[in-house]
Structure formats: C-alpha cells, structure tokens
Amino acid sequence: MAAAQELTPTSYIGHHLTNRTISLGDGPFWTLHLDTFLTAVFLGIVGFGFLWWVVRGATSGVPNKRQAFVEMLIEFVDDQVKGIFHGNRAFVAPLALTVFVWVLLMNSMDFIPVDLAAAFTSNVLHQHEWKPVPTSDVNTTFALALSVWLLMLFYNVKVKGIGGWTHELFCTPFGGNPLLWVFNFLFNLVEYISKPLSHSLRLYGNIYAGEIIFLLLWMWAATGLVGSVFGGVLALGWAIFHILIVVLQAYIFMMLTAVYMAMAHESH
C-alpha cells in the first residue's frame, strides 16, 4: 500500500519537486534553497572552468576540437550581440556569453532521469530532497533576471546621467508636454517592472513544465513492463524535443539580456 501510494502522480511529483532548504534566519525570506544554490554554483565552476582551461591552452596554429568548439561558441554569441548592441561590446558580449552558458548548463540538468539523480543524492550526498534543475526554481530565474535588471538601471544612469534618465522617464514615449509627464512615467514604470518578471517567468515556466512532463513519463515507466517500454520511448522522444526548448530558452534569456543592455545605452 505504501509503495503504491508513493507512485501516485501527486506524491511522486511532489517528492521530486521538493527543495532541500536551510534557514538562515527568521521568516521564509531567509530560507535558502541549498540544492538550487549548490548545483548552480557547481555548474558555473564546471562550465567556465572548462572554457578557461581551453582558452588558456589556445594556440595560434590549427585548433583542436575543444578550442574550435569554444571559438565557435564565443563567435556565435558575439555575432548575436553585435546585431543588437552597437556600442563597445567589451562588457556586454562576455555578459551574454556568461548568461548563455550558465543557463544552458542549468537547463540541461533536466535531461538526467529523476530517479537516477535521486539515487545519487540519496546514496552519495545523503540528501533525500534535492531538486537537480536550478532553473526550475523561480528563485534562480528571478535572481538572474534581477541581476540583469540592476545592471540595466546602472548603465541607464552611467550613460545618460541622472538628469538624462529622469528626462527619459517623464518625457518618453508620448512627448515632453508637462500634461503627459504622469502618463509617461506610469508607462515607463510598468515597463521597468515587467522586464524582470517576464525575463524570469518565461524561463522558469518552460523548464518547470518540462520537468513535470519528465516526472510523469518516468513515473509511468516504473509501473510495469508495458509502462516501462512506452514510458521509456516517450521519455526519449520528449528528451529529443526538449533539447530545442533547453537551448532556445538559454538563447532567449541571453538575447533579452543584450536587448536590455542596448536599451540602457540608447537615448530617446
């Protein structure tokens, strides 16, 4: 009875979507999702450690496969930024590369079968609650989006000055007539608030939904021989399709980052 109860969709999905948390203080605000934080940091170290290792050993001769792959990746990101951002890309291009690689790695954790990941965290880490996909946690996506948003505000002030940015808030897009200042400000306020929300929730929603579908398929695969065959086939099909979603969402997050930084450098 207990085993059957564990395989119900609600209990199975609920167990795999439960974060490992620790409290850093009083109140829910000070609750840290330890699994999300440590997995994201680990993937960042692995991903950028690999890039650093390849770039450090780069030669001017015929590149090896690793060097060619990294050069193609950097050139691809730089070309995308070049089409959006028309100023000095010394900061924006590395920022876009960081966002793309990190988000792509975090999204890719969705391909690991949940029961395999659970076996590792239970037997090796001795943690029975551990979500392996950082971007299926809205805290991760919102933190990333908020970081980009704060950078956008910083460059708005740095490039345009306090006076220029304030003038833009109150005089665009409807014009500088004092009667329109309130409408301009409200319009810009809604735009500024919506940017981190849409930036974060788009990524979170797609990855979270994909994880739930994977959970349902793996649960079906555990119900018996027939379920194992059909569940495995469907899981493989969904994984192949999900490759597009994982890469596309990382690409969209990177492009929106470049767009927001370009908007911060442009004057109206």
Give the helices and strands, then pairings.
Layout: H1 2-6, H2 9-16, E1 21-23, E2 31-33, H3 34-56, H4 65-82, H5 92-108, H6 114-123, H7 138-171, H8 181-221, H9 225-265
Antiparallel strand pairs: 1-2
Helix pairs in contact: 2-8, 3-5, 4-5, 5-9, 7-8, 7-9, 8-9
Write up this protein.
The protein has 268 residues and is mostly helical. 74% of the residues lie in helices and 2% in strands. The protein has a domain at 88-126 and 136-265. The chain has a two-stranded antiparallel sheet. The longest helix has 41 residues, at 181-221.
Summarize the structure.
This protein has helices at 2-6, 9-16, 34-56, 65-82, 92-108, 114-123, 138-171, 181-221, 225-265, and strands spanning 21-23, 31-33. With 268 residues, it is mostly helical.
Labels describing this entry:
disordered N terminus; 9 helices; 268 residues; two-stranded antiparallel ribbon; mainly alpha
* N-to-C series of helices and strands: HHEEHHHHHHH
Quick one: how many beta strands?
A: 2
User: Which consecutive residue ranges, at least 5 long each, have pLDDT under 50?
Assistant: 1-6
The rounded Rg comes to 22 Å
What class would the helix/strand composition place it in?
mainly alpha
Q: State the distance separating the first and last CA atoms.
A: 66 Å
Largest sheet: 2 strands, antiparallel
Percent strand? under 5%
- Strand sequence of the main sheet, in spatial order? 1-2
Helix share of residues? over 70%
Mean pLDDT: 87
